[in-house]
Amino acid sequence: MRYLGCSYGHLIFSCVEHLLLVDVYTGTKVKPPKLHTNSDCVIDSAILMAPLSSSNSCLLLFSNLFIFQWQVVTNSWTEYPLVSEHFLIQIVLFKGQMFAIDFPQTLKTISLAPQPNVQEVDVVWGEDIVVGLNYDPWLVVSGDMLLMVDLVGDLISNGTFQVSRFDSSAEPAKWTKMEKLENWALFISLDRRNPTFSCMNPERWG
């Protein structure tokens, strides 16, 4: 089976029209209904919008052409055309909204209701931010902040990480460079199907 991502403690897999969600703690498996797509549609990633135990939980699958939505406990999928000029690299949930970053490092919002819409966010870069050339940036939700982590240089030798905070109070919105993370630890992966996450006071783990 093909790995599509991890969300709310569940690994998400696909095999042709079959989907499988596996609870990483208990091993419990959930099988959504079969998904019938055409041969040109390639599913790249998947996320849960809420824990499976939640009444409003749904599974979203992202392909090069469509977004597919399965409302948990129903027996069908809803298909939405994905109107985006560029490939979406990563999608995160922040304050009830879906944010995505695409190949040319453009920040976007995705909404499904009342009509499916992919909207570019008008955001400027702070003057002291250096944009990395070797890797695409990561979006990380950290408490009440949406952060962008960028790798400047090479990962193996002399690369340095740069963290910027999304400031929506500015007009237009702005990426502001952070000099300190204080006591936040950020977790990222080169495999963009894996979720990014953050934790405060990591020393409590020993």
From TrEMBL:
Organism this protein belongs to: Aegilops tauschii subsp. strangulata (Goatgrass)
Protein name: KIB1-4 beta-propeller domain-containing protein
InterPro entries: KIB1-4_b-propeller
Top-level taxon of the source organism: Eukaryota
Domain annotation KIB1-4 beta-propeller: ranges: 2-191
One matching Pfam family: Beta-prop_KIB1-4
